Amino acid sequence: MTHATRTLLINPTITSRRSARFPLSLLHLSAALERNGHDSQIIDGNVDRDFVSDTLRAMEQDAFDAVGVSVMGGPQLAPAIAVSGAIRARFPAVPIIWGGYFPTLNPDAALAAPYVDYAVRGQAEETLPELIAALDGKADAKLATIGGLSWKRGGAVVHNPNRRFSLADQGMVLPYDKLGDPRRYLARTYLGRRTVAHQASIGCRFRCTFCGVAAMFGGTTVLPAAEQLERDLGYLKHELGADSVQYFDNNFFDRERDMLPLLEVMARFEMPWWCFARADALLNLSEEAWRLVRKSRLRMAYIGAESPNGQMLKEIRKGTRPDQTMAVVELCRRHGVIPELSFMVAPPENTEEETEHTFEFIRALKRINPQSEIVIYVYTPLPENSRHEQDRARRPGKPLLDLRGAPVVFPTTAEEWAQPRWVDYTCHADAPWLDDRLRRRIRDFVTVLRCRFPTVQDLRSPPWAKRSLSAMALWRYRYGRYDRPWELELANRLVRLRMPQVSGL
Description:
The chain is an alpha/beta fold. It is 42% helix and 14% strand.
C-alpha cells in the first residue's frame, strides 16, 4: 500500500427517518478500517433521504478508493441496486463492494450484477480492510488469500474459503461522529423518550433453517467485556442523552456466566431495555440473574416461539419446545417482562392445518399472559444454497414445492430478488405455496388479534381509540369469527394501529 485509502460506506434506505437507528454494521466497519490505517465516510440512507444524490455529490467532492454498500436484502435491495448502478455509471473505475446478509446468503446473485465487483460474506471487520489494502496493488494473488471474499476473475466467480469468526476488538470505540449529529438517531419509543440502538454481543450459536444469522456468523456467539459495555453505555447515556436501549444482539441471554457481569453493568445504568431472547435461555436463568434483569429494567423480550408443533421445531433446528413457550410467558408475567412472541405460519407441509393450530396456540398463550405481544410471519426457509456450508452438508433440506407441486425456483440475480414477491418472501410475508384463501385467513386473524390486543408499543394511537377497537373485536375473538372483519378494517383506517412486524419497536 502506497497511500492511505479512503472508502465510502453506504447504508441504503430501509426504513423511515423516524424509525432510523444507528447503522451499527457500518460504524464497526469504519472503526475496523481506521484501526488498519484506512479512512472512511458514512452515508446513511435512512436519514439522508436523497442518499443516491448525496453519494454522487460526495464522490465528486472527494476521491474514494472503493465504495462499500451494506445490503440486508428485502426492501433494502432496490435502493442498493439504485445507488450501485448510479456509481458505476458516473465513476466506472471505482470498485464497488457489497456486504451484509444479502451477499452472504446470495453471493452469486450479487456478483451477477455488473455494478458489484466484490461480495464480502459474513463478518467483514477483517475481510474489508484486507480487501481495501489488496485493491491498491490489484493483484489476484492477494485477493485469493482473503477469507470470506467472493470476487470475479476472468469472467468467473471465485468464492474464497469462509473466514473463521473472530473476537471483536474489546477496545473498539465506534466513530459516532461520522454520522453527523448522533442524537438524531434517538427516538421516542415504548421504552423511553430517547431510545438508542446498541449491539453488545455478536452472532448466535444456533442454526435455525429460516435464519441468515448462522450463515453470517457460523454458529458462534461472542459477548463483550463488561468494561466495554460500561464504556459504551456511559457514552450513550451521558454524552448523547439516551434514556433507554434497544439491543440488537441476535441472542442476548446466551450463557448466564458470561451475562451476569453485563447485567450488573446494565443494572447500574437502569436504562429500560428491549432485546431478542430464547425461551429456553430465559427459563434457565437463575434467581440472581432475574434479580439483575429486573433491576436493569428489562421491559420486553422478543422471543422466537415459531411454532406449537414440536416436530416442526426439530425440523427447523430451533432447539426449543412448545411447552417452553408456554412456561416462558408465565415466567415473564411473574417478573414484569412483556414477552413479544414471533410465530411462523403456513409451512410448506400441512399448510392450513399448521396455521390453524398456531392460531389456537396463540389463544392459549393469551389466556396465560394477556400482555403477551404476538408477531406473525409466514414461514419462508432459506434456499438450500444460502445456508451455512456446514448445515448444507450435515442436513439437506426438503425440496420446496409451489401451489402446482413444482419445485420453487429461487432468483439468481439481485434484480430478481428485488421483485415484490421475493421481497415479501425475504420479509416472511408471503410464500409460493400460499393460496389467496389462506392469505386472507392469516390477514383476518392478525386484524382481529391486533385490534383485540393493541400493542403497548403504539404511542401514536390515543388510549380511547385502542380501547374502542379492542371492544369492537371482542366478539370476533371470543367466538373465533375472524372472516372478513370489515368493521375493524374500517375503524383501523382512522386509528392506524402500529404493527410491530412492520415497523418494529
